[in-house]
Design goal:
Two copies of one chain form a homodimer. By secondary structure, chain A is of the alpha/beta class. Chain A is built from eight helices and twelve strands. In chain A, β10, α5 and β11 form a beta-alpha-beta unit. In chain A, α3 crosses α4 and α3 packs parallel to α7. The mean pLDDT of chain A is 85.
């Protein structure tokens, strides 16, 4: 069932006015009438019911109500597994839309677009173009979340240069980047063995990270991980890694408490 | 680097004649001239070099040669992890192309299209339509393998009805289907803990498998597995599961030999 993602200025229960695309979606696409309701959610995953109260020509009013008990019991338990942040090198053209759409489904909590040495399309680094791209990615994320009934809406952060990437503390955070060769002494299982607060994944552009960038990432607390000989396209790399990470975290208890 | 997938009738080293799409690709798209060579592979992943010897107007002759030592040393080691077979419910329209493309990248070894109760488009079950679809999927698999430098070309089997699905032996094969609820007592790690010969994954259509079909699958040796609360679209479900399976198998030693 499709779940409407409430606009960012909505705080939860109460009356709101909707216009633009939200109005279009609810009143034109879904053809809601006064009194009709749809399942709704805030970006953090909290669930509500949206009841249409007043329908104008370009705007509508609606009431955000708590979700009834019975449907709350049926919903998936809020997740207890660690959040996953993705630092994704900006790919060519519309490939980023695909990355975002898939990461919404896979349950990524935050996506940070990153400009790297081998990023194609340097022109797109200007401010106006960046802003347009961020807004588009936010729309893509939102519509993907609505379409697939996502558990939560990931945050699309402002794009940064790779040199601006923060440092991570390997005691509480597992930060890594994908490596094409089995160089790493540690496996993904080893990285995720200790109880961690957050998983951070850096995915390079088509040409990969440069040697200088790899050193920088390691300096910031990122470690290389090899996920097999398969050659993944940019739009699939993050999703592949996130799928593996999610299942390892979900089943953590089953493999960390094993006997020999 | 793009690697040409040799036609199915080619056995390895020797002279071959190429026509149709192969001729078009090599002589028109890649614009090879006599004496030029391209990296090539057989469907099973064995690597060669293809040298163009004669160029006609609609066909060309070429010599399949062993790959030089130095490039063989650089190539990924042949995989030792268990093969993964996918029984995929036929999705609507061109979605299957996407599934095949991604599974080629993820390293699936065999894909069997399956007709189920909730499969949309029953008309497509007639013989001619089936054959056209199989041929298209084979072309998609081949071009995906060439584009991404896949480790091997998966076999696209003839479509079957779900009732024709073979039985699997849980002692040597890990067969399972995805389940939306955490019902299964066993985790993916538990299923893959013992040394197995093959992994078999069944993925349902948009509406899922019917209750009757789930019972049939369990009767055939399939077991349910829950991979988390995320809601995956048909085109992403197999890829997500295969990613997790591949990493678990790749790192098997690191988590099965762990002490408490």
């Amino acid at each position: 069932m499709k779940r409407f993602v409430l606009p960012p200025d909505c705080q939860g229960e109460g009356e709101i006015t909707l216009s633009g695309k939200d109005f279009h979606y609810l009143c034109r696409v879904r053809r809601l009438k006064g009194g009709d309701s749809v399942p709704a959610m805030l970006a953090d995953g909290r669930r509500f019911v949206l009841v249409l109260t007043e329908k104008g020509t370009n705007t509508c009013r609606a009431r955000v109500e708590p979700e009834p008990e019975e449907s709350r019991e049926n919903q998936s338990r809020p997740e207890e597994i660690a959040p996953i942040e993705l630092y994704q090198a900006v790919p060519k053209g519309r490939v980023f839309d695909d990355v975002v759409r898939r990461c919404v489904e896979a349950g990524v909590t935050r996506i940070v677009p990153v400009y790297t040495e081998f990023t194609v399309g340097g022109a797109a680094r200007d401010t106006a173009e960046r802003q347009r791209r961020e807004e588009r990615l936010q729309r893509v994320a939102r519509s993907a979340a609505e379409q697939c009934g996502a558990v939560r809406l990931p945050e699309i952060a402002q794009a940064i240069e790779l040199s601006q990437i923060p440092s991570f503390d390997s005691n509480t955070e597992a930060a890594f980047f994908l490596h094409q060769e089995p160089l790493a002494e540690w496996s993904l299982h080893r990285y995720l063995e200790a109880s961690i607060r957050k998983v951070v994944l850096a995915v390079g552009p088509e040409g990969g990270f440069s040697q200088r960038e790899l050193r920088l990432l390691e300096h910031k607390g990122f470690r290389p991980v090899y996920l097999g000989p398969q050659v993944l396209r940019t739009e699939n790399a993050a999703f592949f890694a996130v799928a593996a990470i999610r299942v390892l975290l979900l089943e953590r208890e089953s493999w960390t408490t094993r006997k020999k």
